[in-house]
Specification:
Structural class: mainly alpha
Oligomer: single chain
Strand order of the largest sheet: 1-2
Shape: globular
Number of domains: 1
Strand content: under 5%
Radius of gyration: 22 Å
Largest sheet: 2 strands, antiparallel
Helix content: 55-70%
Number of helices: 19
């Protein structure tokens, strides 16, 4: 039986789901990257042709193999013949994953108030801007959360008994090939998998088979592509994007700060300022200006503290494990850009979001015993919601699908994706 407290909690979650959905619907729709991902699913729905390939890799004119991207965008149209349909599924997936992560953190960090854990995970800039609107990195979050919960629980010094070992390895296997079909960053997970198997080398019976079963469940959506186009269709998408890029050697601090920004209130990146200065942007929104300025400044402070906290004494007995795993992950990510065709854009390693959040909670938890810090974080959350409301309003007017919603609606109704737009010339889907 649901108690009054649980009913209130469920009501708040429902409101947060509506807020996240509305935010995503107001995000960019007409920019080429978002539009092309949307068209992959719309083309599947309107033609009925199986989507053998997913997102485009623009820099090398290739595509990621696998059907998942086309299915998660296209299948909702069969149920709800509206342009918003794919957003509903995406937000169900991302919010479900974040709620699972919140439950895990609530058990892992009992010193952190539950109101902060839930509100922060569901409203921080990176989970609002990259898990609520249709673009391929938005689907990475679902797999990343499942993967890292599995990984944390596979490390004996970090495990809290949240899930059994066999479930942990099942989640890691499933997540690996889920993310494989959405983004090239899947390769960053391989060192974590290797470490997990090494640490559980005496329990191989409870790790290898579940990992294989989990992998098979998501990799099943790759089988049609390999069957029709051959295994070279997968290797080509990887090898053609591996280019030695010595220019990225200078970017170690950039990689570090952008990694830590996942767990902070990073704001300027997500403001639609149209080449205006930040001060000019604030002057256009005088009512919200104090709140926007506060979170923008506080986000920088958060990153600074998370760097300093690495060297501070921490009462958590397992902090050494998480900080060295985090440092190693940042270094491996930095090295990976030596072989990347592009520079270290933060969204390209958004897959590490749960790890950044995990590290940050270790750093914050002791501070929550202080009243001033709880008040500070509450102020950040309130200011953040106001800021997100302003961003939502701006995006709705300037870049959302609601500028001309009739176009995608007509494409759905007439089952002709070309009404909305043409797929890129290197699209391999029939």
């Amino acid at each position: 039986m649901l108690t009054k407290k649980r009913l209130v909690f469920l009501g708040i979650l429902l409101v947060l789901f509506g807020f996240r959905l509305a935010f995503g619907l107001c995000k960019e729709f007409w920019f080429e990257d978002e539009l092309q991902v949307y068209l992959i699913g719309l083309k599947f729905y309107t033609t009925g042709n199986f989507p053998y390939f997913g997102p485009d890799i623009v820099y090398t004119h290739t595509q990621i193999p696998g059907a998942l991207q086309g299915l998660v965008v296209g299948l909702p149209f069969f149920i709800l013949h509206l342009p918003e349909a794919p957003y509903l599924l995406l937000n169900l997936l991302s919010m479900g994953a974040l709620c699972l992560l919140a439950l895990y953190f609530q058990k892992k960090f009992p010193q952190v108030p539950y109101w902060f854990t839930w509100l922060w995970l569901l409203s921080c800039p990176w989970t609002l801007n990259y898990s609520t609107h249709i673009i391929n990195p938005s689907y990475v979050l679902f797999g990343a959360v499942l993967f890292f919960i599995g990984f944390f629980e596979s490390v004996p010094k970090l495990s809290i008994g949240f899930i059994k070992t066999h479930i942990a390895f099942f989640l890691m296997g499933f997540s690996l090939f889920w993310i494989y079909q959405f983004h090239m960053s899947w390769i960053l997970l391989l060192p974590f998998i290797a470490l997990a198997f090494f640490l559980k080398r005496h329990e191989l019976k409870s790790s290898i088979l579940p990992f294989f079963i989990g992998s098979l469940m998501s990799a099943a959506f790759l089988i049609p592509t390999f069957w029709v186009y051959g295994f070279h269709s997968g290797s080509t998408s990887v090898s053609s994007n591996v280019v030695f890029n010595v220019e990225n050697i200078k970017d170690i601090f950039t990689v570090l700060t952008r990694f830590l920004s996942f767990a902070s209130y990073e704001l300027p990146r997500f403001l639609n300022m149209e080449n205006k200065s930040f001060f000019a942007f604030l002057m256009e929104h005088p009512f919200a200006a104090p709140f926007i300025a506060f979170v923008a400044f506080f986000g920088i402070v958060q990153v600074g503290y998370l760097i300093i906290a690495f060297f501070l004494k921490n009462a958590a007995k397992d902090f050494a494990w998480i900080k060295y795993i985090t440092a190693t992950a940042v270094f491996i990510t930095y090295l990976s850009f030596f072989f990347s065709v592009k520079g270290p854009s933060a969204h390209t390693y958004y897959i590490l979001f749960p790890l950044a959040m995990m590290y940050s909670f270790y750093c914050w938890q002791a501070l929550f015993s202080k009243r001033w810090f709880r008040a500070l974080m509450m102020t950040m959350l309130l200011s953040g919601f106001i800021t997100s409301g302003v961003v939502m309003h701006i995006n709705y007017q300037k870049s959302s699908m609601y500028k001309t919603r009739s176009i995608p609606l007509k494409a759905i109704q007439e089952k002709d994706y070309k009404i909305l737009g043409e797929r890129r010339s290197y699209d391999k889907n029939p």
